[in-house]
Every structure is written in structure tokens, then in C-alpha cells.
Amino acid sequence: MRFRLLFIFIFAISAQTFADKKGLTVYIFLAETCPICQSVSIELKKLDGQYSQLDVKFVGIFPDNALSNEKTRMAFGKKYGLRFPLNGDSGQVITKKLQAEITPEVVVEDDETHTILYRGKIDNSFASLGKRRTVVTEHYLRDAIESWVFGKKILISKTKAVGCIIQKNP
User: Fold this and answer.
1) E strand or H helix at 43, and its extent?
2) What is the pTM of this model?
3) Are 121 and 161 in contact, with CB atoms under 8 Å apart?
């Protein structure tokens, strides 16, 4: 595992030198009270740690201002050890722009072209609501990031997120 990460890091640094990429932003739509958000936070922490040095930025977006405020977001981040920004989305401007519908849902955007490269699940740890897999076999977000880092085509660009429905503000 360490060798793989070292290889990814070294290769990505050289790839970044030759390819003039601006970066990638991973928007993660979250809710403090969503059990699936709580569960995937460990994986998000790992991914942020692995890719933050490779021009991959993670940004947590909390679309429900009725349930979420700065204090609850900071408590959530502290509890799960998240070091990336955790922002409220007053008026659900970002939520609507990126068409997020579920928490947790990720939207991966190329910073240079503003193209959505991937949207959906972080991995396949949940088959459906209340149905957690014992073994995670698909790592959609990780695969999308690695494909971008290595300059490859992202093979799976969309999956259907499983989680809590985002209540839209009127």
C-alpha cells in the first residue's frame, strides 16, 4: 500500500510538471445527521490526505441551513478528523449549480475547464439505504481522481448516490 502511494505521488508530481493542469475540486455534499455521511467520512479523510498535495482540493458542502450551522459543521469535522473546508450553502446556490440531490454525493470538477468529470458515490459501500456491503469492491471517487492524475480517461463518470435526500429550499 505504501509503495503504491509513493509511486502515485512520484508519478503524479512528474505528470504535473509536464501537463499544465490547474487542479481538481471534489465537492462533497454532506449532512451532519446522515448516517451514510458519517460512515464515509473516514474514507474522505484518507482521500484528502492522499491527494491534497496533487492539486486535488476537497470541499465539504452542507446544503441544509435549517440543520447545519458553523458550529455543527466544525463539530462534524472535528469528530471525523476532516481537514478540508466545510461550508454551508446559504440559498443552496452551489447545490443547485452542481445539481446535487443526495448526501453524501460527490461532484468532481476540473478547475481549468470547469467540466464535471465525475458525480455520484464515493464507493460502493452502500448498495442501497440500510444495505451496507461487508466488502467495498468499487472505489469510484478514488478511481476518478487517479485517472485524472495520470491523464487517463475516467471510465465511470456517473453513479447514483445513496443517502439522504437534500431538501430543496423554496
Assistant:
1) helix 35-51
2) 0.85
3) yes
